Batch of 2 targets.
Target 1
Amino acid sequence: MRTQVAIIGAGPAGLFLSLLLERLGVESVILELHTRKHIEERVRAGLLEFNTVQLMHELGVGDRLRRQGLEHGGIELRFNRHGHRIDFRDLAAGKCVTIYAQHEVIKDLVRARLATNHPILFETTEVLVHALDSTAPYVTFQNGGVSERLDCDFIAGCDGFHGVTRAVIPAGALTVYEREYPFGWLGILAQAPPASKELVYVHHDRGFALLSMRSPEISRLYLQCAPGEDLAQWPDDRIWSELHQRFATDDGGQLTEGPITQRTVTGMRSFVVEPMQFGRLFLAGDAAHIVPPTGAKGLNLAVADVRVLAEALGAFYARGSSDLLGQYSATCVRRVWKVQRFSWWMTQLLHRFPDDNPFDHRRQLAELDYVTSSRAASQSLAENYVGLPV
Ligand code: FAD
Ligand code: DHB
């Protein structure tokens, strides 16, 4: 097989890249480890930045998003049992964010990709990338019990944090910046109407909590827990009891309970590799960086990377120019670090750290008071949350 760009991974990065390239007349083949059903049902992110929503419309994959997405013009920060609204439309030039589940985005992108008659090879195993420092790289893999080889001009490593492409780069060629957090998130989906129309981020003595949603009938709730928390220790009534305590307000608003249909524990880390390129291999999305989920940025950052990559590949095929490809990593990394900073900032502002001393705790509360009472400070939160300009 031969193509122009071999894309490893059919997550948001790989699928958006394939559609952006299609629009520029550049051919690609996507190799994905899992089945279509698996990737279309994998529960993950839920919040799309303004720019991500715009891009889905531009690519013609926004019909269901237009009908089912929930536009949010603000969030609530809750601390000391009181809520404080951050009004994005006022503070961020009329912009808003949209709640629409990542696996719904995946369904829309997979359908559009398959309609182009260019393949996604599902259940592809033993992917290996070769000859990265030549102009003729290639990928070997197993598909349907057959060993295959895909020749290409470029390889896009869109295979997530645990993928194989980053691991192939010689250690000396990359610098890794990493930070782990001493907590994780226990996340649930519940068949319960969300108790608030907008997201609620809670700072509480017992730890952080977040109310989000997937529809007017389904709540998505998270609570800070230990990094490797054992779900067996969390029967439903313990989860609800903990959530009720953390969301409690003096005006008596109540969380709505309902059957819990899904539960997971996620660890939290900040991670960046630089550069995001080695020869003809370009890393994008979680393959190159991870943010803690507090700012809801992972998916959106993956989309920002592949916009830059698609434009650079487009320039290569249209004009034979490698300039933008040469600048790919530097261009992406500027945004990556700003988003890392914001995600770290939201995380340290809202979570309890095991080694907190009373000073840290009072400082956090002072910062929350500042962010919710100063227009300059809340504007900084708002412009980052809705997404920095592309
Ligand atoms: P992935 O989505 O991980 O896709 C990689 C793909 O590559 C997968 O389909 C995988 O199966 C495939 N693959 C892996 N290895 C191989 C291989 N060897 N060969 C072939 N294919 C391979 N982000 C937000 O923006 N907003 C949010 O609200 C948000 N909330 C989150 C909440 C939680 C609990 C979690 C866990 C994450 C959240 N994120 C959020 C982060 C977001 O889900 C990720 O950043 C996003 O999925 C990254 O996309 P990606 O395409 O880079 O990687
Ligand atoms: C969701 C996840 C996040 O990490 C966040 O900050 C906001 C919303 C969600 O899954 O809906």
Target 2
Amino acid sequence: MIKAIRGMRDILPPETNRWQWVEAAAREVFELYGYREVRLPLIERTELFARSIGAETDIVAKEMYTFPDRHGDSLTLRPEATASVLRAVLEHGLDKGAGVKKYYTLGPMFRYERPQKGRYRQFYQINCEAYGVDAPELDAEVILLLLDILNRLQLGELRLLVNSLGCRDCQAHFKAALKNFLADKDGLCEDCRRRREANPLRVFDCKSPHCQAILADAPVLKDYLDEACAAHFARVLELLARHGVAYTEQPRLVRGLDYYTRTAFEVVAAGLGAQDAVAGGGRYNGLSRELGGPELPAIGFAIGEDRLLEVLPAALGQGQEFKVFLAALGEAARDRAFSLLQELRGQGLAAEMDFEGRSLKAQMSLADRLGAAYVVILGDRELETGVANLRPMRDFAYIQGEGVRLTEVAGGRMAVQQEEVPLDKLPEVLAQRLLGR
Ligand code: ATP
Ligand code: MG
């Protein structure tokens, strides 16, 4: 038997209900904030990522799925969305015009990492990207948008970490100071010795406790912000505080990609262990120029959907299945049921029947397994009288279209009652019971 590739997983029902629910919530919030969806290729020229994410980053140095195509061009399965969305925005001139240009996209990303809990080789992100405005209000708005999505999902304990990486000038001063600090430090790991020369900011990515201990006394970016960058950051924090957002300043937060400038942030969730970041983002004002585009301020974030699903409360997004099962006995009844089935679906009611001529008992147990809310039994008598019995299954009751287990209704006082319904009124009555209309 052929199995899925290591680090790639199948997401199956009923788990997919929860994914759909999360994505629907995200889309709704994006629309509220004026974002529109883009759908982009999963494969891009390797150069796009190598140039934007940075050669010394973990993603580019170790994690990309890169391969030559039939013409020998180097292609890469996208490891993240920011570079692709900006590529598309520049290619189609979507950066033109006044105001903030707002786009979102959902979909899989690929990184060749060691698979473990919360870390897959194909994983999913919900991405937000905004272009054209450098005002701190946009930074605050983007963070509020992210928190709006997360709050709608009723996630437990979340922490927002924020930092400012300054502009390229601040970063140049900081890097010089950091290089200076690291120059006489013995015992840095091999990666960090290389980073020290090539791209000192990346030493903050190091997982080695020894390197981290050395970095405890390292200079912090905050002390190297120029006046404009410091004012920008202060205004972002002020707006967050004004909207009741609890944040933690995290002076060592640099994020794993080279393109960030000014505001950078991350949301971590309790209960995820080592892989605790559910979302991350920041400004990347310099990226457009780096890709050969015009000066274009930009900011965005990515939510890690796989990890988000791990902390989503179990009761949420299960999806209500308002199934009607038609239990038909005899050929004539089955024939009538087949047409009725399509009528019910035409009314927006999920409906099923048995095609294999099983016994009533077998059909009832199938209805039960499918989670049917109602069973309608159709036999010769029903065809003759034109009236059928509508039988609510087990302890389900329906109040204005909401499926509720009777055990959850105060005192369990709602009795499970059968009712007689004319066959030609069945779609109408069921729509009323199940969809509340
Ligand atoms: P980490 O430090 O956990 O490796 P990262 O900095 O590489 O995260 P980003 O590039 O910022 O992650 O991606 C944004 C989000 O995507 C992360 O916060 C995380 O939730 C999710 N993510 C990143 N890599 C993976 C992966 N391999 N599997 C599942 N989710 C991931
Ligand atoms: Mg990573």
